[in-house]
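Worked Example 4.2. Read the sequence first, then its structure tokens.
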Amino acid sequence: MSFQLRPYKEEEFERACQVRGLETPDAKLRFKVRFDGAGKWIDHYMHLALDNDGELIGDVQLRHCDRTMPDGVAHIGIDIAVAAQGKGAGTKALELAWDWAKVNNFHRLEGSTEISNIAMRRAFEKAGWNFEGTQKNLFIEEGVGHDYLSFAKTI
């Protein structure tokens, strides 16, 4: 299998929305601006397609807000298509994102996953990211707090 991170292709919009779980017209419209600028910073986001043997299987989001993060630091988010989950795609996305970060003068990538997401926890560990702690009640949904585990890769 050959994985790569790359900008999206114009014809991949609906597939990218499917991978990201975007169903409503409003959600798709908000994503369209970033999709059209894939591979470039739009505001403080950059989206890259995760490709496996020519098939779009994931979306990698890099976030760097110059008002809240030092130069050389970014946060990562990853969405993997359901059919590609459990096959090493998350680990590969983390490895490729770190390679991208080093080439583009980033010295730190950080990411987190809900404490119950065992697959993503394993992906961080397999990709050699360091566990940095627990973010208590990072998200509140229907009055219930969700703890997230924080990981980072640094030079």
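Now turn to a second chain, presented in exactly the same format:
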Amino acid sequence: MPAPPADPSSAERLDRLTPEERSRNMARIRSHNTKPEKIVRQLVTALGLRYRLQRRDLPGKPDLVFGPRRTVIFVHGCFWHQHAHCPAGRIPTGNRPFWESKLARNTQRDTAAKLALQRLGWRVLTVWECETKTPGKLQKRLARLLPPLAPE
């Protein structure tokens, strides 16, 4: 007995969720106040450093801005900003052309913001989401990169 014809819409769609369910999930992904951002803020605060959040007057709206140090920190999600050599930075196999295009635009925007900030005299640091999984190691890195200001 022959197998029933496969539903082409489900055969073509590798995603387990319907487009509506996927859209709802994607809409719930935050761009600010993410768990990795909160971890970085806690670590920086523990170092006794003060910062401002998402200054809109700076290219790329950096996550943390240390004005007197002319230093900014971007906290990047490994998937959304395509962290090289990180398992979370892989491109999904379903709807691959869409994801390649979208994620390439994100990395191009990141590069443009970094270059613009550097041209303005800012030092740009990037903290990846996977780095926040080992807070002790990350705090040592931040302490090394953000030394206390010399008294005036």
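Notes for the reader: The longest strand covers residues 71-76. The radius of gyration is 20 Å.
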